Amino acid sequence: MAHTSDRSRDMEELIALLKRRGFIYQGSEIYGGLAGTWDYGPLGVTLKKRVEGIWWKMFVDDREDMYGMDAAIIMNPRAWEASGHVGGFSDPLVECTKCKRRFRADHLADKTKCPECGGALGSERQFNMMFKTQIGAMEDAGSVAYLRPETAGGMFVNFKNVVDSFHPKIPFGLGQIGKAFRNEIAPRDFIFRVRELEQMEIEYFVHPSRWEESFEAWRKAMWEFMRAIGLDEARVHELEVGDQDRAHYSQRTIDFEFDYPFGRKELYGLAYRTDFDLSAHSKGSGVELSYFDEATKERYVPHVIEPSFGVGRTLLALLTQAYTKDQLGGEERIYLRLSSAIAPIRVAVFPLLKNKPELVAKAREVYMALRTHFGNVAFDDNGNIGKRYRRQDEIGTPWCVTIDFDTLGENPKEKDTVTVRHRDTGAQERVAIVDLVRYVGETPRA
Ligand code: ATP
Protein backbone atom coordinates (compact mmCIF):
# COMPACT_ATOMS: atom_id res chain seq x y z
CA MET A 1 0.00 0.00 0.00
CA ALA A 2 1.22 3.47 -0.83
CA HIS A 3 2.76 5.61 1.88
CA THR A 4 0.45 8.30 3.36
CA SER A 5 2.32 11.17 1.73
CA ASP A 6 2.09 9.36 -1.64
CA ARG A 7 -1.62 9.00 -1.10
CA SER A 8 -2.12 12.67 -0.28
CA ARG A 9 0.02 13.64 -3.28
CA ASP A 10 -2.10 11.36 -5.47
CA MET A 11 -5.21 13.01 -4.06
CA GLU A 12 -3.86 16.45 -4.97
CA GLU A 13 -2.97 15.23 -8.43
CA LEU A 14 -6.41 13.70 -8.85
CA ILE A 15 -8.11 16.97 -7.81
CA ALA A 16 -5.94 18.85 -10.33
CA LEU A 17 -6.81 16.34 -13.07
CA LEU A 18 -10.52 16.57 -12.29
CA LYS A 19 -10.35 20.34 -12.57
CA ARG A 20 -8.23 20.42 -15.72
CA ARG A 21 -10.39 17.87 -17.53
CA GLY A 22 -13.74 19.39 -16.58
CA PHE A 23 -15.07 17.05 -13.89
CA ILE A 24 -15.15 19.16 -10.73
CA TYR A 25 -14.34 22.83 -10.11
CA GLN A 26 -14.12 24.76 -6.87
CA GLY A 27 -17.47 26.52 -6.23
CA SER A 28 -17.46 30.25 -7.18
CA GLU A 29 -13.77 29.86 -8.03
CA ILE A 30 -13.26 33.27 -9.70
CA TYR A 31 -14.40 34.91 -6.43
CA GLY A 32 -11.88 32.95 -4.41
CA GLY A 33 -14.25 30.02 -3.83
CA LEU A 34 -16.80 29.28 -1.13
CA ALA A 35 -15.79 26.70 1.47
CA GLY A 36 -17.68 23.42 1.23
CA THR A 37 -19.08 23.96 -2.27
CA TRP A 38 -18.01 22.39 -5.56
CA ASP A 39 -19.31 22.68 -9.11
CA TYR A 40 -19.61 19.70 -11.45
CA GLY A 41 -18.37 20.38 -14.97
CA PRO A 42 -19.44 18.58 -18.15
CA LEU A 43 -17.68 15.27 -17.44
CA GLY A 44 -18.46 15.37 -13.69
CA VAL A 45 -22.16 15.88 -14.22
CA THR A 46 -22.24 13.00 -16.71
CA LEU A 47 -20.49 10.71 -14.22
CA LYS A 48 -22.89 11.82 -11.49
CA LYS A 49 -25.97 11.29 -13.63
CA ARG A 50 -24.83 7.83 -14.64
CA VAL A 51 -24.37 6.81 -11.00
CA GLU A 52 -27.74 8.31 -10.09
CA GLY A 53 -29.31 6.60 -13.12
CA ILE A 54 -28.10 3.17 -11.98
CA TRP A 55 -29.45 3.88 -8.49
CA TRP A 56 -32.83 5.04 -9.78
CA LYS A 57 -33.19 2.08 -12.12
CA MET A 58 -32.15 -0.45 -9.49
CA PHE A 59 -34.17 0.93 -6.59
CA VAL A 60 -37.18 2.65 -8.22
CA ASP A 61 -37.83 1.62 -11.84
CA ASP A 62 -37.01 -2.06 -11.47
CA ARG A 63 -39.02 -2.61 -8.30
CA GLU A 64 -42.76 -2.94 -7.85
CA ASP A 65 -42.57 -1.98 -4.18
CA MET A 66 -40.81 1.38 -4.69
CA TYR A 67 -42.14 4.84 -5.61
CA GLY A 68 -40.07 7.85 -6.67
CA MET A 69 -40.38 11.30 -5.06
CA ASP A 70 -39.02 14.78 -5.60
CA ALA A 71 -40.01 16.94 -2.65
CA ALA A 72 -39.33 20.63 -1.99
CA ILE A 73 -36.03 21.55 -0.35
CA ILE A 74 -37.63 24.18 1.88
CA MET A 75 -40.31 22.70 4.10
CA ASN A 76 -42.64 24.10 6.70
CA PRO A 77 -40.26 24.63 9.68
CA ARG A 78 -42.67 22.77 11.93
CA ALA A 79 -41.61 19.59 10.10
CA TRP A 80 -38.02 20.05 11.34
CA GLU A 81 -39.20 20.81 14.85
CA ALA A 82 -41.25 17.60 14.87
CA SER A 83 -38.41 15.50 13.46
CA GLY A 84 -36.07 16.69 16.20
CA HIS A 85 -33.66 18.50 13.87
CA VAL A 86 -34.27 22.01 15.26
CA GLY A 87 -33.48 20.74 18.74
CA GLY A 88 -30.88 18.10 18.01
CA PHE A 89 -29.23 18.16 14.58
CA SER A 90 -25.96 19.46 15.90
CA ASP A 91 -22.27 18.69 16.08
CA PRO A 92 -19.99 19.48 19.03
CA LEU A 93 -18.03 22.67 18.30
CA VAL A 94 -14.87 24.01 19.94
CA GLU A 95 -13.15 27.29 19.16
CA CYS A 96 -9.49 28.18 19.61
CA THR A 97 -9.16 31.09 22.02
CA LYS A 98 -6.08 32.33 20.15
CA CYS A 99 -6.60 31.95 16.36
CA LYS A 100 -10.43 31.65 16.55
CA ARG A 101 -10.48 28.67 14.21
CA ARG A 102 -13.38 26.27 14.80
CA PHE A 103 -13.23 22.48 14.97
CA ARG A 104 -15.53 19.54 15.42
CA ALA A 105 -14.71 18.32 18.92
CA ASP A 106 -15.36 14.68 17.99
CA HIS A 107 -12.73 14.91 15.22
CA LEU A 108 -9.94 16.02 17.58
CA ALA A 109 -7.55 13.65 19.31
CA ASP A 110 -6.57 16.33 21.87
CA LYS A 111 -9.58 18.40 22.90
CA THR A 112 -7.52 20.97 24.83
CA LYS A 113 -5.04 22.23 22.23
CA CYS A 114 -5.64 23.85 18.83
CA PRO A 115 -4.25 21.56 16.09
CA GLU A 116 -3.40 24.62 13.95
CA CYS A 117 -1.73 27.11 16.31
CA GLY A 118 -1.37 25.23 19.59
CA GLY A 119 -3.57 27.75 21.45
CA ALA A 120 -6.00 26.73 24.17
CA LEU A 121 -9.38 25.46 23.00
CA GLY A 122 -12.54 26.88 24.56
CA SER A 123 -15.32 24.78 25.97
CA GLU A 124 -17.42 22.51 23.81
CA ARG A 125 -20.90 23.57 22.68
CA GLN A 126 -23.52 22.18 20.36
CA PHE A 127 -23.75 23.79 16.93
CA ASN A 128 -26.93 23.24 14.89
CA MET A 129 -26.01 22.43 11.31
CA MET A 130 -29.21 23.46 9.58
CA PHE A 131 -29.00 26.47 7.28
CA LYS A 132 -31.57 29.08 8.27
CA THR A 133 -33.26 31.38 5.81
CA GLN A 134 -36.21 33.75 5.67
CA ILE A 135 -39.43 33.14 3.81
CA GLY A 136 -41.35 36.06 2.34
CA ALA A 137 -40.91 39.79 2.72
CA MET A 138 -41.01 39.97 6.52
CA GLU A 139 -37.82 39.20 8.44
CA ASP A 140 -39.11 38.14 11.82
CA ALA A 141 -39.23 35.03 13.95
CA GLY A 142 -42.31 33.84 12.06
CA SER A 143 -40.52 33.86 8.71
CA VAL A 144 -37.67 31.50 9.63
CA ALA A 145 -37.25 28.46 7.39
CA TYR A 146 -34.54 25.84 6.93
CA LEU A 147 -32.85 24.24 3.97
CA ARG A 148 -33.36 20.50 4.47
CA PRO A 149 -30.37 18.76 6.10
CA GLU A 150 -31.45 15.40 4.64
CA THR A 151 -33.89 14.44 1.91
CA ALA A 152 -35.77 12.04 4.20
CA GLY A 153 -38.20 14.62 5.65
CA GLY A 154 -39.80 15.28 2.27
CA MET A 155 -40.68 11.60 2.01
CA PHE A 156 -42.14 11.17 5.50
CA VAL A 157 -44.52 14.12 5.08
CA ASN A 158 -45.75 12.57 1.82
CA PHE A 159 -46.34 9.09 3.22
CA LYS A 160 -50.10 9.62 3.42
CA ASN A 161 -50.29 11.22 -0.04
CA VAL A 162 -48.63 8.23 -1.68
CA VAL A 163 -50.76 5.74 0.27
CA ASP A 164 -53.91 7.62 -0.80
CA SER A 165 -52.83 7.82 -4.47
CA PHE A 166 -51.46 4.32 -4.98
CA HIS A 167 -52.79 2.14 -2.14
CA PRO A 168 -49.49 0.24 -1.90
CA LYS A 169 -49.30 -2.84 0.28
CA ILE A 170 -46.73 -2.78 3.05
CA PRO A 171 -43.81 -3.29 2.71
CA PHE A 172 -43.21 -0.49 0.22
CA GLY A 173 -40.77 2.39 -0.03
CA LEU A 174 -40.15 5.88 -1.34
CA GLY A 175 -36.93 6.84 -3.10
CA GLN A 176 -35.56 10.30 -3.73
CA ILE A 177 -32.41 11.91 -5.12
CA GLY A 178 -31.77 15.51 -4.19
CA LYS A 179 -29.81 18.22 -2.49
CA ALA A 180 -29.40 18.60 1.24
CA PHE A 181 -27.55 21.31 3.16
CA ARG A 182 -25.44 21.08 6.28
CA ASN A 183 -23.51 23.95 7.76
CA GLU A 184 -20.52 21.71 8.48
CA ILE A 185 -18.11 23.20 11.00
CA ALA A 186 -15.10 22.08 9.00
CA PRO A 187 -15.78 21.11 5.37
CA ARG A 188 -12.81 19.11 4.11
CA ASP A 189 -11.33 16.39 1.96
CA PHE A 190 -12.53 17.74 -1.39
CA ILE A 191 -16.10 16.53 -2.06
CA PHE A 192 -16.14 14.24 1.00
CA ARG A 193 -17.49 16.76 3.52
CA VAL A 194 -19.35 19.61 1.88
CA ARG A 195 -22.04 22.08 2.89
CA GLU A 196 -24.26 21.53 -0.12
CA LEU A 197 -24.54 17.82 -0.77
CA GLU A 198 -26.60 15.38 -2.73
CA GLN A 199 -28.23 12.28 -1.32
CA MET A 200 -29.98 9.25 -2.73
CA GLU A 201 -32.31 8.05 0.01
CA ILE A 202 -34.93 5.40 0.56
CA GLU A 203 -37.56 5.26 3.29
CA TYR A 204 -38.88 1.72 3.36
CA PHE A 205 -42.06 1.15 5.39
CA VAL A 206 -42.48 -2.20 7.10
CA HIS A 207 -44.62 -3.93 9.71
CA PRO A 208 -42.85 -3.46 13.10
CA SER A 209 -42.38 -7.23 13.44
CA ARG A 210 -40.57 -7.46 10.09
CA TRP A 211 -37.88 -4.79 10.46
CA GLU A 212 -34.97 -7.17 10.90
CA GLU A 213 -35.50 -9.11 7.67
CA SER A 214 -35.98 -5.87 5.77
CA PHE A 215 -32.81 -4.42 7.28
CA GLU A 216 -30.90 -7.50 6.07
CA ALA A 217 -32.45 -7.32 2.60
CA TRP A 218 -31.43 -3.66 2.24
CA ARG A 219 -27.97 -4.41 3.49
CA LYS A 220 -27.61 -6.89 0.62
CA ALA A 221 -29.21 -4.47 -1.85
CA MET A 222 -26.66 -1.80 -0.91
CA TRP A 223 -23.82 -4.18 -1.71
CA GLU A 224 -25.50 -4.98 -5.02
CA PHE A 225 -25.55 -1.30 -5.91
CA MET A 226 -21.89 -0.91 -5.01
CA ARG A 227 -21.07 -3.82 -7.32
CA ALA A 228 -23.17 -2.36 -10.14
CA ILE A 229 -21.21 0.90 -10.16
CA GLY A 230 -17.90 -0.92 -9.88
CA LEU A 231 -16.85 -0.03 -6.32
CA ASP A 232 -14.00 -2.17 -5.07
CA GLU A 233 -15.68 -4.35 -2.43
CA ALA A 234 -12.39 -4.96 -0.64
CA ARG A 235 -12.26 -1.25 0.24
CA VAL A 236 -15.77 -1.16 1.75
CA HIS A 237 -16.29 -2.14 5.38
CA GLU A 238 -19.42 -2.42 7.46
CA LEU A 239 -19.39 -0.81 10.88
CA GLU A 240 -22.06 -1.49 13.48
CA VAL A 241 -22.64 1.94 15.05
CA GLY A 242 -22.73 1.91 18.86
CA ASP A 243 -25.53 3.30 21.05
CA GLN A 244 -23.72 6.57 21.78
CA ASP A 245 -22.93 7.37 18.17
CA ARG A 246 -26.28 6.75 16.54
CA ALA A 247 -28.50 9.58 15.29
CA HIS A 248 -31.37 10.51 17.60
CA TYR A 249 -33.93 8.65 15.46
CA SER A 250 -32.10 5.37 14.99
CA GLN A 251 -32.30 2.10 16.88
CA ARG A 252 -29.77 0.32 14.71
CA THR A 253 -27.29 1.71 12.19
CA ILE A 254 -24.67 0.16 9.97
CA ASP A 255 -22.23 2.53 8.34
CA PHE A 256 -20.56 1.42 5.14
CA GLU A 257 -17.06 2.84 5.28
CA PHE A 258 -14.65 3.25 2.40
CA ASP A 259 -10.86 3.34 2.40
CA TYR A 260 -10.33 6.86 1.07
CA PRO A 261 -6.76 8.16 0.62
CA PHE A 262 -7.29 10.22 3.81
CA GLY A 263 -8.55 7.26 5.87
CA ARG A 264 -11.46 4.91 6.40
CA LYS A 265 -14.57 7.09 6.42
CA GLU A 266 -18.35 6.84 6.13
CA LEU A 267 -19.64 6.26 2.61
CA TYR A 268 -23.26 5.21 3.26
CA GLY A 269 -25.58 4.60 6.19
CA LEU A 270 -28.31 2.04 6.78
CA ALA A 271 -30.60 2.95 9.67
CA TYR A 272 -33.60 1.46 11.41
CA ARG A 273 -35.61 4.58 12.23
CA THR A 274 -38.47 2.70 13.97
CA ASP A 275 -41.78 4.63 13.85
CA PHE A 276 -39.95 7.71 15.08
CA ASP A 277 -40.59 9.91 12.06
CA LEU A 278 -44.16 8.99 11.19
CA SER A 279 -45.19 9.25 14.84
CA ALA A 280 -43.38 12.56 15.30
CA HIS A 281 -44.91 14.07 12.14
CA SER A 282 -48.31 12.74 13.11
CA LYS A 283 -48.03 14.46 16.46
CA GLY A 284 -46.53 17.64 14.98
CA SER A 285 -49.10 18.02 12.21
CA GLY A 286 -52.16 16.54 13.86
CA VAL A 287 -52.63 14.28 10.82
CA GLU A 288 -52.94 10.55 11.36
CA LEU A 289 -50.01 8.77 9.66
CA SER A 290 -50.85 5.14 10.17
CA TYR A 291 -51.59 2.26 7.83
CA PHE A 292 -54.58 -0.03 7.70
CA ASP A 293 -53.95 -3.57 6.58
CA GLU A 294 -57.12 -4.76 4.80
CA ALA A 295 -56.17 -8.42 5.08
CA THR A 296 -55.49 -8.54 8.83
CA LYS A 297 -57.70 -5.56 9.78
CA GLU A 298 -54.76 -4.21 11.77
CA ARG A 299 -54.01 -0.47 11.98
CA TYR A 300 -50.44 0.48 12.87
CA VAL A 301 -47.72 3.06 12.38
CA PRO A 302 -45.18 1.49 9.98
CA HIS A 303 -41.53 1.24 10.95
CA VAL A 304 -38.83 2.50 8.63
CA ILE A 305 -35.60 1.14 7.21
CA GLU A 306 -33.49 3.87 5.64
CA PRO A 307 -30.63 3.18 3.23
CA SER A 308 -28.88 6.51 2.65
CA PHE A 309 -26.29 7.11 -0.08
CA GLY A 310 -24.18 10.24 -0.52
CA VAL A 311 -23.62 11.03 -4.19
CA GLY A 312 -20.39 13.01 -3.69
CA ARG A 313 -18.87 10.37 -1.42
CA THR A 314 -19.74 7.72 -4.03
CA LEU A 315 -18.01 9.70 -6.77
CA LEU A 316 -14.97 10.35 -4.60
CA ALA A 317 -14.70 6.63 -3.78
CA LEU A 318 -14.99 5.70 -7.46
CA LEU A 319 -12.49 8.35 -8.56
CA THR A 320 -9.86 7.65 -5.90
CA GLN A 321 -9.95 3.90 -6.58
CA ALA A 322 -9.85 4.54 -10.34
CA TYR A 323 -6.82 6.86 -10.28
CA THR A 324 -3.99 4.71 -11.63
CA LYS A 325 -0.38 5.28 -12.66
CA ASP A 326 1.41 2.72 -14.76
CA GLN A 327 3.91 2.25 -17.57
CA LEU A 328 2.60 1.72 -21.06
CA GLY A 329 4.89 1.37 -24.06
CA GLY A 330 7.82 2.50 -21.91
CA GLU A 331 6.05 5.71 -20.88
CA GLU A 332 4.47 6.65 -17.58
CA ARG A 333 0.78 7.32 -17.89
CA ILE A 334 -2.15 8.24 -15.66
CA TYR A 335 -5.59 6.87 -16.23
CA LEU A 336 -8.96 6.52 -14.54
CA ARG A 337 -10.01 2.90 -14.31
CA LEU A 338 -13.75 3.56 -14.28
CA SER A 339 -16.29 0.88 -15.14
CA SER A 340 -17.93 1.36 -18.54
CA ALA A 341 -21.24 1.44 -16.62
CA ILE A 342 -20.32 4.90 -15.29
CA ALA A 343 -17.45 6.27 -17.41
CA PRO A 344 -18.49 9.72 -18.67
CA ILE A 345 -17.39 8.78 -22.19
CA ARG A 346 -18.05 5.16 -23.16
CA VAL A 347 -16.11 5.18 -26.39
CA ALA A 348 -14.12 7.72 -28.41
CA VAL A 349 -13.89 7.65 -32.21
CA PHE A 350 -10.87 8.92 -34.19
CA PRO A 351 -10.01 9.25 -37.87
CA LEU A 352 -6.36 8.18 -38.21
CA LEU A 353 -5.53 11.46 -39.96
CA LYS A 354 -7.31 14.77 -39.68
CA ASN A 355 -6.57 16.00 -43.19
CA LYS A 356 -8.06 13.07 -45.15
CA PRO A 357 -11.74 13.89 -45.77
CA GLU A 358 -12.66 10.29 -46.59
CA LEU A 359 -11.27 9.09 -43.21
CA VAL A 360 -13.00 11.92 -41.35
CA ALA A 361 -16.31 11.22 -43.12
CA LYS A 362 -16.20 7.53 -42.25
CA ALA A 363 -15.18 8.28 -38.66
CA ARG A 364 -18.10 10.76 -38.32
CA GLU A 365 -20.44 8.06 -39.63
CA VAL A 366 -19.24 5.52 -37.03
CA TYR A 367 -19.31 8.21 -34.32
CA MET A 368 -22.92 9.17 -35.12
CA ALA A 369 -24.05 5.52 -35.10
CA LEU A 370 -22.44 4.89 -31.69
CA ARG A 371 -23.67 8.21 -30.30
CA THR A 372 -27.24 7.45 -31.36
CA HIS A 373 -26.98 4.19 -29.46
CA PHE A 374 -25.02 5.17 -26.32
CA GLY A 375 -25.20 8.96 -26.07
CA ASN A 376 -21.87 9.45 -24.32
CA VAL A 377 -19.49 9.06 -27.24
CA ALA A 378 -16.64 11.44 -28.15
CA PHE A 379 -15.06 12.39 -31.48
CA ASP A 380 -11.44 13.53 -31.54
CA ASP A 381 -9.17 14.35 -34.47
CA ASN A 382 -6.68 16.55 -32.65
CA GLY A 383 -2.97 15.71 -32.46
CA ASN A 384 -1.50 12.27 -33.04
CA ILE A 385 -3.20 9.03 -32.06
CA GLY A 386 -0.93 8.49 -29.04
CA LYS A 387 -1.94 11.86 -27.57
CA ARG A 388 -5.60 11.14 -28.20
CA TYR A 389 -5.28 7.83 -26.34
CA ARG A 390 -3.67 9.58 -23.37
CA ARG A 391 -6.42 12.19 -23.25
CA GLN A 392 -9.10 9.51 -23.20
CA ASP A 393 -7.18 7.41 -20.63
CA GLU A 394 -7.08 10.39 -18.32
CA ILE A 395 -10.85 10.74 -18.28
CA GLY A 396 -11.48 7.00 -18.04
CA THR A 397 -12.82 6.19 -21.52
CA PRO A 398 -12.81 2.36 -21.74
CA TRP A 399 -12.43 2.08 -25.55
CA CYS A 400 -11.02 4.10 -28.44
CA VAL A 401 -11.98 3.30 -32.03
CA THR A 402 -9.73 4.35 -34.94
CA ILE A 403 -10.79 4.51 -38.57
CA ASP A 404 -7.86 4.00 -40.95
CA PHE A 405 -7.24 3.33 -44.64
CA ASP A 406 -7.87 -0.40 -44.18
CA THR A 407 -11.38 0.50 -42.94
CA LEU A 408 -11.96 2.17 -46.30
CA GLY A 409 -10.85 -0.95 -48.18
CA GLU A 410 -7.16 -0.35 -48.89
CA ASN A 411 -6.71 -3.82 -47.50
CA PRO A 412 -9.85 -5.60 -48.78
CA LYS A 413 -9.74 -8.17 -45.96
CA GLU A 414 -10.02 -5.36 -43.40
CA LYS A 415 -12.73 -3.34 -45.16
CA ASP A 416 -15.36 -2.00 -42.75
CA THR A 417 -13.34 -3.00 -39.71
CA VAL A 418 -11.75 -0.63 -37.17
CA THR A 419 -9.06 -0.77 -34.51
CA VAL A 420 -10.44 -0.92 -30.99
CA ARG A 421 -7.94 -0.03 -28.30
CA HIS A 422 -8.48 -0.98 -24.65
CA ARG A 423 -7.77 1.56 -21.94
CA ASP A 424 -6.39 -0.70 -19.20
CA THR A 425 -4.01 -2.83 -21.26
CA GLY A 426 -3.45 -0.71 -24.36
CA ALA A 427 -4.21 -3.90 -26.36
CA GLN A 428 -5.68 -3.39 -29.81
CA GLU A 429 -7.94 -5.58 -31.89
CA ARG A 430 -9.68 -5.39 -35.21
CA VAL A 431 -13.48 -5.32 -34.97
CA ALA A 432 -16.13 -5.13 -37.72
CA ILE A 433 -18.12 -1.89 -37.65
CA VAL A 434 -21.37 -3.89 -37.59
CA ASP A 435 -20.23 -5.53 -34.33
CA LEU A 436 -19.14 -2.32 -32.58
CA VAL A 437 -22.33 -1.57 -30.64
CA ARG A 438 -22.40 -5.06 -29.18
CA TYR A 439 -18.66 -4.97 -28.55
CA VAL A 440 -18.52 -1.75 -26.54
CA GLY A 441 -21.82 -2.59 -24.91
CA GLU A 442 -19.92 -5.16 -22.87
CA THR A 443 -18.33 -4.30 -19.57
CA PRO A 444 -14.59 -3.99 -20.05
CA ARG A 445 -12.28 -6.55 -18.59
CA ALA A 446 -10.77 -4.92 -15.47
P1 ATP B 1 -20.67 12.15 9.03
O1 ATP B 1 -20.64 11.33 10.30
O2 ATP B 1 -19.55 11.84 8.07
O3 ATP B 1 -20.86 13.62 9.28
P2 ATP B 1 -23.44 11.48 8.94
O4 ATP B 1 -23.44 10.21 9.73
O5 ATP B 1 -23.88 12.73 9.59
O6 ATP B 1 -22.00 11.69 8.25
P3 ATP B 1 -25.84 10.83 7.58
O7 ATP B 1 -26.63 11.80 8.35
O8 ATP B 1 -25.98 9.37 7.85
O9 ATP B 1 -24.28 11.23 7.64
O10 ATP B 1 -26.08 11.13 6.03
C1 ATP B 1 -26.30 10.13 5.07
C2 ATP B 1 -25.24 10.15 3.98
O11 ATP B 1 -25.14 11.45 3.41
C3 ATP B 1 -23.84 9.84 4.48
O12 ATP B 1 -23.63 8.45 4.54
C4 ATP B 1 -22.98 10.50 3.41
O13 ATP B 1 -22.87 9.67 2.28
C5 ATP B 1 -23.79 11.72 3.04
N1 ATP B 1 -23.31 12.93 3.74
C6 ATP B 1 -23.65 13.34 4.96
N2 ATP B 1 -23.04 14.50 5.28
C7 ATP B 1 -22.30 14.85 4.20
C8 ATP B 1 -21.46 15.95 3.89
N3 ATP B 1 -21.29 16.96 4.73
N4 ATP B 1 -20.86 15.98 2.68
C9 ATP B 1 -21.04 14.98 1.79
N5 ATP B 1 -21.83 13.91 2.03
C10 ATP B 1 -22.46 13.84 3.21
Question: Which features characterize this protein?
Answer:
binds adenosine-5'-triphosphate; 446 residues; 31% helix; 7-stranded mixed sheet; alpha+beta; globular; 5-stranded mixed sheet
User: What helical percentage do the residues reach?
Assistant: 25-40%
Shape: globular
Mean pLDDT: 94
Strand order of the largest sheet: 3-10-11-17-14-13-12
Number of separate strands: 24
> For the terminal residues, how far apart are their CA atoms?
19 Å
User: Which ligands occur here?
Assistant: adenosine-5'-triphosphate
Q: Major beta sheet, specifics?
A: 7 strands, mixed
Determine the structural class based on helices, strands and strand pairing. alpha+beta
Global Rg: 26 Å
Number of helices: 13
Strand content: 25-35%
Low-confidence stretches: none
Structure overview:
By secondary structure, the chain is of the alpha+beta class. 31% of the residues lie in helices and 29% in strands. The chain is built from 13 helices and 24 strands. Strands 3-10-11-17-14-13-12 form a 7-stranded mixed sheet. Helix 2 packs across helix 9. The model has no long low-confidence stretch (mean pLDDT 94). Adenosine-5'-triphosphate binds next to strand 11, strand 14, strand 17 and helix 9.
How is this fold's topology laid out?
Layout: H1 4-20, E1 24-26, E2 38-40, H2 42-61, E3 66-69, E4 74-75, H3 77-82, H4 85-88, E5 90-95, E6 102-104, E7 125-128, E8 132-134, E9 144-147, H5 152-156, H6 159-166, E10 172-181, E11 196-206, H7 211-228, E12 236-240, E13 252-260, E14 263-274, H8 276-285, E15 291-293, E16 298-300, E17 303-310, H9 311-322, E18 323-328, E19 331-336, E20 347-351, H10 357-374, E21 377-379, H11 385-395, E22 399-403, H12 405-408, E23 417-422, E24 428-432, H13 436-441
Parallel strand pairs: 3-10, 20-21, 20-22
Antiparallel strand pairs: 1-2, 4-9, 5-6, 5-7, 8-9, 10-11, 11-17, 12-13, 13-14, 14-17, 15-16, 18-19, 22-23, 23-24
Helix pairs in contact: 2-9
The structure holds adenosine-5'-triphosphate (ATP).
